[in-house]
Each structure stands twice: as structure tokens, then as C-alpha cells.
Amino acid sequence: MRYSDVVGVLLSVGDELRIRHRDGREIAVPASAVHRIKPVPVAARDALELERVATLGWPAPEQEWLGHWMLRAAGGFTGRANSALPLGSPGMPVTQAIEAVIAWYGARGLAPRFAVPIPGAASVDAALDALGWSGEASTLVRTGELANVRSRAAARDDVVVDLENEPDEAWLAMYHYRGRGPVPAIGRAVMLAAACPVFAAIREAGEPVAVARAVVDETWLGVTALEVAPSHRRRGLARALMAALADWGAERGAVSSYLQVLESNAAANALYDDLGYWTHHRYHYRVLPTG
Questions:
Q1: pLDDT class for 201, splitting at 50, 70, 90?
Q2: Average pLDDT, the chain
Q3: CA-closest candidate to residue 256, choices 53, 48, 31
Q4: What is the rounded distance in angstroms from the CA atom of residue 209 to the CA atom of residue 105?
Q5: Rounded distance, CA 197 to CA 213, Å?
Q6: How many CA atoms lie within 13 A of 204 on its CB side?
Q7: At the topology level of CATH, where does 142-280 sit?
Q8: How far is the C-alpha of 235 from the C-alpha of 206, rounded, in Å?
Q9: Averaged pLDDT for residues 26-48
């Protein structure tokens, strides 16, 4: 059989490559017939669409639209919930819209901040750069086919993962957003505000040593807040959490998964590489200089 270019999502690699075509079909291609695998750049509209889905999984308690820019505020808890997210046109000149963003965050006592998806908001990024807004926290938005993640993660019989609808105080004490803690009251509210979130924990002597959170929105499993106690790292606990959450998501109709991880976090990115996640797009923050 002759094969021409096949464009789709790579599901698995072995003696044959399994690919989900754009029309939904799964195609098996013998590895011996493959001459080159060429990544197809993600379209800007696809990056913005996934960003929209991700806002459902980590919703700010205060949201307001400026055209197609989403302004979000959560008392300063996490950049995702306290930044303007450009998902299209603001409905006015960009410089005027930026001034409106500055005023909106200033009225709430928060530092003006943008989360800038690339591709998707390159023109906004250029405008902010020209105005002297500094860039920080380059973040990868990584995605994987859930069936592939489940097969690679492989649940362990020797590790019990508890799944609860709400985090208890011990769970909250274990989670430190980018090394910070404890979680403020508004942080708990943010994590509970999504539709039916789940809070996973691996415990020893009743105390959590590894935690994570997940949601399912529109066939996407979103994984957030994954943390393992320093004393329990390199034991496969993060993988065990991912396996349990992947199973949980599949039971609720998810077919794909996304997560957000700092580009500089080599250990986490190595794990996600191994689980079959790839970089869908990136985003970084733009912060108004002080002084």
C-alpha cells in the first residue's frame, strides 16, 4: 500500500503509527513506511480556542469583557485569574484598550497584567512590548490524547489515589502555587468555581504527600495544581496522580487533556514528554513597569 502525507494527531508510536485524521478516522501506518514526521504549527484560532476552554477550568470570580478581551480578577491569586486575556479584538484601538485595562486593574488594587497566547495575540504582545511592558513566566500549554496518556501513565496497584469533590485543609496546606503558600481563601474559591472539579491526593499516615486537581470541560481534561512533597519526589507519585486523573476524565467523556507548565520546569516537562504531551502553544505575561 502507498501512503501520502497524513495530517492529524499522532496517538501512538510503535511498529505502526496510529494517527487520528482531521475527519475523526484513526489511521494505522507501518513505521517502516514513515520517512519523516513533520510537526504542523498550531493555528492562532486553535490556540485562542484552547485558552478559552482553559478559562473554564480556572475561573476568576470577577470577569468582564472588553470586546473579546477577558479581564479577570481574583485578589491576586495566580496570574491566570488576575490578567487580561486577549481572545480577539477589543473593539477599539489597542492602545486605548490597554489604557482601559490599566484603569480596570488599578480600580481593584491589582497590578495590570496580560496573559499573551502565542500564536494568537502576537500583535497585542508587540504593542505591549513597544509600550515597555516587561515579559515574564514563559509557559507551555501542553496537550495529549487521553487514550495515549492513560496507556503511558498506567495506574499502579501499590499507590492509592483519593479523589474528592473538595480540598480539605491538609490538601490546601500541601499545595504551593509556584512555591508560595498558604492558599488564601479566594484561592480555594477559584479552585472550586469550575464545574465539578476533582481533588486528588496520595496520603501517608493520613497526610497528603502528593496532590493535583482536574476538571473536564468540552471533552478536555485540564490538570492543574500538581505538587509532590520534596521528600517524596522521584517515586512515581506524579505519574500515579496523572493516571488516576486521566481515568477520571475519560469516565466523564474527555478525549484530550491540557495542562500549563513553566517552560523552565525541566522535571515536569520531562514527565509530560513521557506521558505523551506535546506543546500546543505558549503564553507569557506582560506586566506594566512600576515607577
A1: very high
A2: 90
A3: 53
A4: 36
A5: 7
A6: 9
A7: Aminopeptidase (3.40.630)
A8: 18
A9: 69
Using the Cα atoms of residue 261, residue 240, residue 11 and residue 220 in order, give the sign of their dihedral.
Answer: negative
The answer to whether the CB of 133 falls within 8 A of the CB of 288 is yes
d(CA 227, CA 208): 10
Residue linked to cell 504582545: 125
Q: How far apart are the first and last CA of the chain?
A: 67
Q: Supply the DSSP symbol for 31.
A: G
Omega before 182 within 30 of 0, i.e. cis = yes
d(CA 283, CA 118): 6
* Range list of β-strands (E), the chain: 8-13, 16-21, 26-30, 62-66, 69-73, 84-86, 113-118, 134-145, 162-164, 198-204, 207-217, 220-228, 256-262, 278-287
Strand order, beta sheet including 8-13: 8-13, 16-21, 26-30
Q: In this structure, are residues 209 and 202 in contact, taking their beta carbons and an 8 Å threshold?
A: yes
Q: How many CB atoms lie within 10 A of CB 133?
A: 20
Per-residue cell: 137: 513566566
Q: If we measure between CA atoms, which residue out of 227, 143, 150 comes closest to residue 181?
A: 227
Q: Which residues contact 32 (CB under 8 A, 6 or more apart)?
A: none
- CA distances 19 to 6, 11, 14, 42, Å, are 8, 5, 12, 17
Per the listing, cell 493516571 goes with 243
Written as nine digits, the cell of 244 is 488516576
Q: What grid cell was written down for 155?
A: 495506574
Which residue type is seen at 27? I
d(CA 239, CA 87): 33
Percent of the chain with pLDDT over 70: 85
Is pTM beyond 0.90? Reply is: no
| Whether pLDDT at 276 is above 90 | yes
pLDDT in tens, 220-250: 999 999 999 999 999 999 999 999 999 999 9
Residue with cell 512555591: 179
Residue 144 β-bridge partners: 257
